Amino acid sequence: MAYPVEVDYAYDDVPSTLFDPTRDTDESRNPTWSHKDRLNRCTVSAALGSGAQGIVVASSGNHGASAAAYAARAGLRRVVLASAGAPPAVQSFLDAYGAVVLPVPEHERWSLMRQIVDRLGYHPVSNLTAAAHTGHAFDPEGYKTVAYEICAELGVPAQSGGRALRVSDAEMAAARAELAAGGLWAEVSSAASLAGLRQLAPPSGEGALVCVSTSSGFKDMDVGTNPLEPLSPPDWATVAGRLRAAGISLA
Ligand SMILES: Cc1ncc(COP(=O)(O)O)c(C=O)c1O
């Protein structure tokens, strides 16, 4: 075999949708596998700049883990007010970055966060506040790098309109399955962008459409709760039974 091996598609055989002009920015490639790394690089920089000894964040998952990771790297203490119903992997994730994890009922988190800010002088980096979905003032500085990257890759400024859509859980699940069939395993909330696009189908306008897929499927609520079931007995008859059950013909 000659190296480097060149791999190509059998263009006549691939589904026509493979080359549709929809593209996906896969945010699971960030250091903590979500788009939150873009903004926490900025919020933790703000915390350092303010002279705080630590950060505090209320989050059920992605945001808290990302803030904890960047704070660890910056040498700041990190406190995460987590939700009691967070996915099983969240505790391990936060422990890995040395965060102090405080699982509290959601309605208590804002007053407790305020007390940590007031009593310890820690810098708050949540994406929500008690009043609104406003977040930290530096958040957009991080998020806008997505637009810069799209512009750099496509050679045109990223444009966005002002339309909000409501997508259902079923639509997000379908969009997620579509992404997985294309080789991307996204957290179900990450498939909201593609679900919205599919609601508008067929898309109008010219040029590429870019969906931002915000996080990895590893972050989903039920990940880690479905252990592998060993084949018993581990022989061909059992394998054949499983393959048939999966719709694979053995003829
Ligand atoms: C996977 C995922 N997508 C989207 C969001 C929403 O992000 P934001 O609140 O910054 O708009 C979050 C977190 O809140 C998230 O975890």
What does this structure look like?
The strands form two sheets. Strands 4-3-2-5 form a four-stranded parallel sheet, sandwiched between helices. Strands 1-6 form a two-stranded parallel sheet. 38% of the residues lie in helices and 11% in strands. The chain has eight helices and six strands; from the N terminus they run E-H-E-H-E-H-E-H-E-H-H-H-E-H. The longest helix is centred in the middle third of the chain and has 16 residues, at 139-154. It has helices at residues 36-50, 62-74, 89-96, 109-120, 139-154, 169-181, 192-199, 236-245; strands spanning 22-26, 54-58, 77-82, 100-103, 123-124, 209-213. It has a domain at 36-140: Rossmann fold (3-Layer(aba) Sandwich). It is an alpha/beta fold and 251 residues long. Residues 34, 61-63, 127, 187, 189-190, 214-215 line the site of pyridoxal-5'-phosphate.
The order of strands across the largest sheet is 4-3-2-5
| Distinct helical segment count | 8
Q: Estimate what percentage of residues fall within beta strands.
A: 5-15%
Bound molecules: pyridoxal-5'-phosphate
Percent helix, as a range, is: 25-40%
Q: Provide the residue-averaged pLDDT.
A: 88
Radius of gyration: 22 Å
SSE-based structural type: alpha/beta
